[in-house]
Amino acid sequence: MLASLWRARRRGSCVEALPRAGRSCARLAGVALALALAVSPGVAFAQAEALLDEGKALMKKGKVAEACPKLEESYRLSPRSATLLALAMCHEKQGKIATAWSEYIDLGAAARKEGNKRLEADAKARGAKLELSLPRLTLSVPRAAAVEGLEVMLDGAPVDGALWGQARPIDPGQHKVSASAPGRKPWEKSVSIKRGERKTVAVPALAKDASAVAQPAPAAEAPAAPVAAAPEKGSAASGDGAAGPGKGAAVPGKGAAGSGKDAAVPGKGAVAAAPGKGAAVPGKGAVAAAPGKGAAVPETDASPAAPPAAEEPERSSGSSPRHTGGFVIEAGVAGGALIGLMDSGSFGDLSAYSYSYNIPEGELIAPCDDEVCHASFDPAIGPFAGGEAFIGFALSEDLHLGARVRGGYRFGGGYLVVGGPSASMRLGRVWLGLSGLVGPVAQEAKVTGIKGEIPSEVVHLNYGRSEVAVNAREGSLPESALVETIAFGGSVDVSLVLADLPSAGWTSGALLLSVSPTVMKGLDGWVFAAPASLGYRFY
Question: I need a surface site. Which of 64, 307, 316, 333 has the fewest CB within 10 A?
Answer without folding.
Answer: 307
